[in-house]
Specification:
alpha+beta; 7 helices; 7 strands
């Protein structure tokens, strides 16, 4: 039975333009359905111009430096900032349209938590360098999300493919809020928790899609520094 209401919710997520509160409600709606995330991921894939990418299998591979989507600073961080970050395909067969003959074993859902910062970063201290992905990983498309911020109304996130992608690499990527931003929030009396979850699902043609979902929870605990 087709759930028209869920389809409408997914269309709104894919189209963008949702406020943070609306996006939070939409993601809760997805969580309530057994196949909600899978249908949302497939809707994103359908919305992209895959034809142009698949017609260019000989495009040279390039190393891509990945950082999180632009995030709101300090007070602009909301209580729940949750969004599907990127749709990632395992295997170069994704780029060429070929099938990966290895058997697909659905990966378990993984969750990563960041730890509170022990010390406050200095204002003039450069942030740690973002880890570089293996050279075989390449960007094949981009998704654009509405952020709800007047300063940066949209954020682009990459869709990646390549044999170097695995769950460990995805979980080790930087969290949306950096240590410096966390320290600034803590000086204002806020406590911040970040969590990353990987939702994996096989596609009918043998490919596998993984959706990293970052959640940021901000709560006010007092006016004194933590």
């Amino acid at each position: 039975m087709i759930d028209a209401d869920l389809d409408l919710t997914i269309d709104r997520i894919v189209d963008g333009g949702l406020s943070p509160a609306q996006l939070r409600d939409a993601l809760h709606r997805l969580d309530a359905e057994p196949d909600g995330w899978k249908r949302c991921a497939l809707a994103f894939l359908e919305a992209q111009t895959w034809g142009d990418v698949l017609r260019e299998p000989s495009r040279p591979q390039t190393s891509l430096k990945i950082g999180p989507a632009p995030t709101a600073r300090s007070k602009r961080v909301r209580t729940t900032l949750a969004a599907a970050a990127a749709l990632v395909a395992f295997g170069m067969g994704w780029l060429t349209g070929g099938r990966d003959e290895r058997p697909i074993v659905p990966a378990p859902t993984l969750v990563a938590h960041d730890e509170p910062v022990e010390t406050v970063a200095k204002a003039d201290e450069p942030e740690a360098a973002r880890p570089d992905p293996p050279p075989a990983i390449r960007e094949v498309a981009r998704l654009r999300f509405a952020t709800g911020s007047a300063d940066a109304p949209t954020a682009d996130v990459p869709i990646l493919a390549g044999p170097g992608l695995d769950s460990q690499w995805l979980m080790n990527q930087p969290m949306p809020v950096s240590d410096r931003e966390r320290a600034a929030l803590e000086r204002q009396g806020y406590a911040l928790d970040q969590e990353r979850e990987l939702v994996a699902m096989p596609l009918a043609d043998g490919r596998q899609v993984v959706v990293p979902v970052d959640q940021v929870r901000l709560r006010y605990v007092g006016s004194e520094p933590l």
